[in-house]
Amino acid sequence: MPESLGPKIEALPQVDEVSPVVILSEQKNLVMVYGIDYKRFNALSRGFLFRAGKPFDGPDGLIVDDIMAQQRHLKVGDKVMLLNRQFTVNGIVAHGKGARFFIPIKTAQEIAGVEDRVSMYYVRSKGDTEGTRAAILKLDPANRVRSIAEYVTLMSSTSLPQLKPFVRSMVGLGIVISFLVILLNMHTMVMERTREVGILKALGFSRFDVVKMLLGETMVLTLLGAGFGILVTFLAAAILKEVNPGLTILITGRWVAAAIVLAVIGSALGVAYPALRAASYDPVVALAYE
Q1: Among 31, 46, 117, 274, which residue's Cβ finds the most Cβ atoms within 10 Å?
Q2: Domain ranges of the chain
Q3: Cα torsion for 39, 44, 46, 49, to the nearest 10°?
Q4: Which of 60, 99, 96 is nearest to 78 (CA)?
Q5: What is the per-residue pLDDT across 23-37, written as a single tens digit (0 to 9) for each?
Q6: What is the DSSP track for 88-134?
Q7: Contact between residue 241 and residue 249 where contact means Cβ atoms under 8 Å apart
Q8: Contacts made by residues 6-10, CB under 8 angstroms, sequence distance 24+
Q9: What digits encode the pLDDT tens for the residues 128-140?
Q10: Cα 74 from Cα 47, distance rounded (Å)
Q11: With helix as H, strand as E and coil as C, how does 1-19 read?
Q12: Terminal Cα distance for the chain, rounded
């Protein structure tokens, strides 16, 4: 978008503050870099919260958020190669401002070769978000105007329509494999315990008692396995976060519950046939089984 659009947006009565941003990406590490006008960007909200250092002191100045600083072991004064250019870390700020790195907007325009143009505008309204959106669209209907809530949802994996079928396919494949593995293991176990089943039936066990015994054993193993798997998942997440603090890992209670339910369903289906087959054994034949 032309940089000249900024003053037009700022002149709208519904608008309180406007900040142009040039968005760049470090291809090597897939890290987002914002080119900003420091004073205007800082005025959008409560501003940057500095952990160390100060704002830009020149065209090659760099502000880094605390997560990236921790990940790369950066401190104020360090030299950083970014976008094939060397920058000096002027400040380290609290994360949550949209990017990991911030550079002067003129420097970003020079690197991208987009003089007097910007990627987007951050706009703070005076309270009426929808009214401000409508007023901005009147200036240039070709542009898209989103609220911060809508913009944030674009950064989540749930906003990718192609991802949901993939995840569902992987979950379905996992259920099928679990079912087959449990079916094979239980079938083998039942075959090896044929004499034991025969003894139990000779002692008065009914078919239902045999099914209940095998199903109970399977459920205990399933719950222990699910608990161990969830424990390993949280442990792996903690290790990855320690190794790479910038990595986002989301494990919700809903996902944990769904994993346990799927494990129980897969186990119940897998043990059903072997359990029913064991329950149908004739005690005399089972006792003579070698």
Answers
A1: 274
A2: 5-155, 163-287
A3: -50
A4: 60
A5: 998 877 778 899 999
A6: EEEEEE-S-SS-SEEEEHHHHHHHHT-TTB-SEEEEEESS-HHHHHH
A7: yes
A8: 6/118, 6/121, 8/139, 9/121, 9/123, 9/136, 9/139
A9: 888 888 888 888 8
A10: 21
A11: CECCHHHHHHCCCCEEEEE
A12: 81
3-class DSSP state of 187: helix
> Which amino acid is present at 219?
M
Residue 107 confidence (pLDDT) above 60? yes
Q: Which two tokens stand for residue 233?
A: 């998942």
Nearest to 21 by CA among 40, 8, 7, 35: 35
DSSP string, 199-235: HHHHTT--HHHHHHHHHHHHHHHHHHHHHHHHHHHHH
Q: Which two tokens stand for residue 66?
A: 């605390």
pLDDT digits (tens, 9 = 90+) for 249-266: 778 888 899 888 888 887
Supply 67's token pair: 């997560």
| Residue 13 identity | P
